[in-house]
Amino acid sequence: MKKLTSNLTVQVLTAIALGVLVGTFFPTFGAALKPVGDTFINLIKMLIAPIIFLTVVLGIAGMGSLKKVGRVGGKALLYFEIVTTLALAIGIGVANFTQPGAGVQATAQAVLHDAKKTEEAAKFTEKAGEMNWVEFFTHIVPDNVVGAFAKGDILQVLLFAVLFGLALNHLSEKVEPLMRTFERLSAVMFQVLALVMKLAPIGAFAGMAFTIGKYGIATLLPLGKLMLVVYLTMFLFIFVVLN
Known about the structure:
With about 240 residues, the chain is an all-alpha fold. The chain has a single domain (about 1-240), classed as Proton glutamate symport protein (Orthogonal Bundle), CATH 1.10.3860. Helix content is about 85%, strand content about 0%.
């Protein structure tokens, strides 16, 4: 019983159930918990860029010859492109077949009801329509490395990590102390992530309480349908594409 209650998955599921109850019976209080859920999400987002940077740098720097790095990198890029294309195809196919968002149309409109959010959404849509391949590749190169980390621009961080890893690989033995430092930093970042994940039940509780408190218990059905569609898509991707 102790092992069961200490399991993070069980804790998160319990927190979600409690969030549903709080949002249903105390909607005002539940809606007020939004900052708690947002804070947990920000904690996760805070760690993404440094973890990706350290992981990629250590992976490339520890590969040995640059020729091997090029071969592995080329194969990895080709594999990534093929698998990503298949994943998109499966996701679009399942979404079109099941229509998981059909029941949350009113909720989506409620989220975007104020002028500020509507204006932000319009700006993103307009920028996406104007984006071309030249601008895309230009955007990948950061004009400020610190800014790339501050904005959480993963593509820019990834490019810098690849270049940094190649430089460390080229210098090899000259940068052994720096490599050991990066290995320790990587271990520290993953430990920080483990500590943050202990707060996952609180984040799940606050997020669910806010959703139910603001949009009502009726959102559970479309949310449940969406979760089933996500798991179905993951099942197809893992056992059809990756098998």
